[in-house]
Design a protein that fits this description.
33% of the residues lie in helices and 16% in strands. With 491 residues, it is an alpha/beta fold. The strands form four sheets. A five-stranded parallel β-sheet has the order 3-2-1-4-15. A five-stranded parallel β-sheet has the order 6-13-7-8-9. The chain starts with 5 loop residues before the first helix and ends in a 13-residue tail after the last helix. The protein has 17 helices and 15 strands. It has three domains: 129 residues, Fumarate Reductase Iron-sulfur Protein, Chain B, domain 2 (Orthogonal Bundle); 164 residues, 3-Layer(bba) Sandwich (FAD/NAD(P)-binding domain), CATH 3.50.50.60; 161 residues, 3-Layer(bba) Sandwich (FAD/NAD(P)-binding domain), CATH 3.50.50.60.
Amino acid sequence: MAELSKRERMGIPRQGIPTQDPAARRTNFDEVALGYTLEQARREANRCLQCVKRPCTEGCPVGVLIPDFIRALRDGDLDGAVRAMKEKNNLPAICGRVCPQESQCEASCVLAKTGEAVAIGRLERFVGDYELERRTCPPECCGDTGKRVAIVGAGPAGLTCAVDLGILGHKVTVFESLHSPGGVLVYGIPEFRLPKNMVREEIVYAAECLGIEIRTDAVVGSLYTIDELLGEQGFDALFLGTGAGLPSFMPIPGINLNGVVSANEFLTRVNLMKAYLFPEYDTPVKVGQRVAVIGAGNVAMDAARCSLRLQAIRAQETGEERGEVHILYRRSRTEVPARAEEVEHAEEEGVLFDFLTDQLEVLGDGRGNVGGLRNIRTKLGEPDESGRRRPVPLEGSEYDAEFDMVVMAIGTRPNPLVFNSADDVERTRWGTVVADEDSGRTTRERVWAGGDVVTGAATVISAMGAGKRAAADMHSYLEGEGEPWQQPGDE
């Protein structure tokens, strides 16, 4: 294929990705985005200008060699694309689906300055899927160092840390409190965004190649304490990647009524426990006829879209009306923190958005159940510490709305159970671990931490980046090459 000029590359339109029709997909949990064909992928890859300064790589939290894998894909060298991708990213099929590329690598793309960025995430997904099907680039261990490392939590941060340490030759054991590894990838993100068989295959494949042991139903803080793992259990180092799975609720009257649930509980039942397939699977889930989801992040979108599908499935089975799902957000659409693609998909599927509204009370139906919400209109004031404009209540604008289910999706915090007998691991007032941003070192020697347990709820790729940085520092320390242990923030 003849080399295209810069002008010719810039003239290629960004390739759309095929998706399920909205009317069809709201009745099933199959994946919404269907992925590129090889022809579409290579055409999109041809848009890349192969910039010398590589701003896209600088915008990636794990430093994926983006121009390298795209060039290989463009040239038809798919195995080379996999090798370039997996040099920095152990889970490309997953990241290609759930990472916010539009605010990271794609935001830094030169083409984004005057038009549309290269669809880096969609190309990453294509390469990841190719690797999943063919297994052309298995991770390989460098040799046995004789060191043993405990990883607490099998989410994105913990798995990334485990794989990197396994490649470097350390004996790794992962302790996961749930019955399946994957963390938020399996309990939080719905099947229609991230198929669970893909997550399982990525994890099992890497673990088998590197001899990583994964112990499920193993609750650190109960089964073992951090002291015991680093003491009598004989581990030389420990990484905390337990995430932030403890839900938050609004401090308003009526919050304890039946029908008020956290998005975490709801999504765990639907995703990990496969409640949408009840009674084939044992876990049922109740969804209201009029559902209010409080919040507008990705978790809120997932909860709303799951609710919509469960309503539609029920309507098909019973013949009743499908119901409504509302997202209530105290700011405007401009401030919505969820990915633009997820908001667009939610709207296409029929989720309703009530902007500039805050909640004062959950109203009961007189029988202990949710009957509605008492809300108040808001306007936007000056920016707060998050950089978004602060919502200001409008006096006298209170109004009531009927709902029979309320899903709280307003944030999460780390579960404190893991810190039993670990008072020397310093935490903030929000319950997150104090750790050095570059190395992951905590206030306790031989304990590192990364991901949501340090930052609070964030992105999959940022958690993976923290896992990679910690693994590199853990390796240096275990090999006797690291700096002396210091408190996080010390010079």
